[in-house]
């Protein structure tokens, strides 16, 4: 069994302040996990804002170098890769599709560029073929997207184009940073289900970064819960979220409002009983 | 929710229409963001508005609050507050009247209100800017009152001397709620006040908003796209789709027995911890409001669509006392 991605005690410090009063912020502290090549999975990173989950994603993508520890892709250190070869293996999907695409650029150009640079397509016909294949995997087609600008599509469609763009490179790993938080409620589940299909049909591994525990429970295989840069709990997603052990994970789980928490703050219910589990601040 | 006083409406919205009108190079474009919305908000209740982005929620409450700036125009209908009986909408009243009721009777917690505090002014001065002229009294009396009010939202009085950047997101949100409630207004509009917060902080802020509302007996119009928040917080709920209200009623009843196909989908598609059932997204995309589909605006995506849906706008009809829905499949033969 070989590892696709291995993180070994990875930390990242940022320094803040001027020459005389430098403060060090430890964004990520000694995080370790591994994804296996022959077992594609959706690996979820859960955490509040400021927990270091986006910093972790940026390190996996090779945008930031870790301050200490090592990140290896298929046994080789991420820093040792040629940038272009690395991007052919690992592709990002960002939170807000409206910000990820240049509003003045036609969407198909992103697909062709990715196909030529990372997908190994030579010539226009090959690039078009690869773009169309990727778009079909997300339920769109090149005929629908060709010549369109980002404002002509809805958030859900645009996020599908962003996923198709990542697929054009035929990566082995996708890092998705809050990919559904900006997508409309009626379209959110189709994006989440799409991730499940990519894992099952294409054998892709996905690092899914989110603060939404319900979709994490629904789709992911394993997860880690981060707080202030530290992993407080890890394990199989459904087992962890059904019976969280760490006090913070429990607090997080209890704070999730679902249709079943009906009337938690409504008249007739004792407010104290509700406020207690989350009464940390 | 009992007694005759609780049933008295504070806000009556009737057939409200608000459009964005632009004219460039001789091309007129009209986006009908709010198109014929009617509902009432009673005293001492939290009325929720749900709907996805660009369904017109924010435009609706901006129109109700009279915050009309071109290209947004109030085209028709009325939105009458009980404390402003002479005018049928805040936006139609003269500016000096509106200045008199703002903050004192009607306050507005804006979307992304973490960023509405002036970054260069200490919180104390923001409080004075907003509320001193309404509450009166000497400077020290006012400061004492602000401190007492901050305690009510569980903030330390020392927050008054802080700059906004020194506070966490949750604390800033509490400050904006404190600002919106210090004059004890009868009506509070809260537009996605907790969307940017973490779940744990969100829960605290919602519990606090509820207790303040109950203490003052005011009415709240609460907007969020998060159905979980609506289930936990609101008394009654209105569902918006493409600029129109499609269903409204008691929140508990809507969750127990949703009638409109869109509402049913919204509730059924929510994943829950402990439930592994497959959930599907809805096919198609929300309509472009510059050229909305004729008839019922949901019909291109609706699983129950019939020929009549493409031609006739369904009327908002009460199927049960206090539960209205606009759908031909639920109320056959009721055209608007």
How much helix is in the residues of chain A? Answer: 25-40%
- In DSSP terms (H or I, runs of 4 or more residues), the helix count of chain A works out at 12
Order of helices and strands of chain A: EEEHEEHEHHHHHEHEHEEHHH
User: What's the Cα radius of gyration of chain A?
Assistant: 20 Å
Largest sheet features of chain A = 6 strands, mixed
Poorly predicted sequence stretches spanning 5 or more consecutive residues of chain A: 268-281
Number of helices of chain B: 10
Secondary structure tally: strands of chain A: 10
> Looking at the structure, what is the overall shape of chain B?
globular
Average residue pLDDT of chain A: 86
* Coarse shape of chain A: globular
Strand content of chain A: 15-25%
Gap from first CA to last CA of chain B: 31 Å
Estimate the strand proportion of chain B: 15-25%
What is the terminal-to-terminal distance of chain A? 45 Å
Structural class of chain B: alpha/beta
Task: Walk across the major sheet of chain B and give the strand order.
Answer: 5-6-7-3-8-9-11-10
Mean pLDDT value of chain B: 88
Residues in helices of chain B, as a percent range: 25-40%
> Structural class of chain A, please?
alpha/beta
Oligomeric state = heterodimer
Descriptive overview:
The complex is a heterodimer of chains A (281) and B (336). In chain A, 38% of the residues lie in helices and 25% in strands. Chain A contains 12 helices and 10 strands. In chain A, α4 crosses α5 and α5 crosses α7. The longest helix of chain A is centred in the last third of the chain and has 18 residues. The C terminus of chain A is likely disordered. Chain B is of the alpha/beta class. Chain B is 29% helix and 24% strand. The chains are: A alpha/beta (281), B alpha/beta (336).
List its traits.
heterodimer; A: 281 residues; alpha/beta; 6-stranded mixed β-sheet; 4-stranded antiparallel β-sheet; 38% helix; globular; disordered C terminus; B: 336 residues; 8-stranded mixed β-sheet; 3-stranded antiparallel β-sheet; 11 strands; 29% helix; disordered N terminus
